């Protein structure tokens, strides 16, 4: 609006209107004294008035634009900047909260570590105190006879402990074996085969249950179990002893072997 503060075109409009009316009246009356001069002056005045009006209207348009007509592009940029600013502010707040939580956690871990580091020192001090107490005679006794009696008592207790330990039974490693003893044919006397196998006896061998298991074509095998002491009886020795019964036994297989 300051651009129109010095404009007087609207205040002097009556002057220009009167001048235009006089011009047309002079033309109508046929004033012949100075028609060219008067017409040119009036025409110039009218042209100036029109130019002033045109300039005033253009100024009014520019002032209206500057005063309040919104600019869409600028508004969009401003809105974008405001959104980015709010997002950045939120991110900074989240980072601040995370840093604070990490700081609290580190402080708690440092406190726990310091308390744990003090515990071994306390335990070490207690052990040193106990060791020092062991070497101190609380009763102030230096009698050699009493020391000799204590040593003898300690030796007697040690001997009794060793004797008691020696009386405990020694764990013997044993194995449970199931053998498949196969005959030559279906005419083999299976009862005689079982009796012959059970006659194999030695220290550390104990025969168990036996049964006949069908093979094929009417032939059955003798399946017999036994328990052996591992230090005294080997599986190879036992199978070899059974295979020596050549009249009754064709072969011997180990069906199962378990530690007892």
TrEMBL record:
PROSITE patterns: EF1BD_2. It comes from the Eukaryota. Keywords: Coiled coil, Elongation factor, Protein biosynthesis. This is Elongation factor 1 delta. Residues 138-165 form the Elongation factor 1 beta central acidic region eukaryote domain. One of its GO terms (molecular function) is guanyl-nucleotide exchange factor activity. Signal peptide: none annotated. InterPro entries: eEF-1beta-like_sf (IPR036219), EF-1_beta_acid_region_euk (IPR018940), EF1B_bsu/dsu (IPR049720), EF1B_bsu/dsu_GNE (IPR014038), Transl_elong_EF1B/ribsomal_bS6 (IPR014717), Transl_elong_EF1B_B/D_CS (IPR001326). Residues 71-112 form a coiled coil. GO terms for cellular component: cytosol; eukaryotic translation elongation factor 1 complex. It holds the Pfam family EF1_GNE. SUPFAM superfamilies: eEF-1beta-like. Belongs to the EF-1-beta/EF-1-delta family. The keyword Cell membrane does not apply. SMART domains: EF-1_beta_acid (SM01182), EF1_GNE (SM00888). Residues 174-260 form the Translation elongation factor EF1B beta/delta subunit guanine nucleotide exchange domain. It comes from Pararge aegeria (speckled wood butterfly).
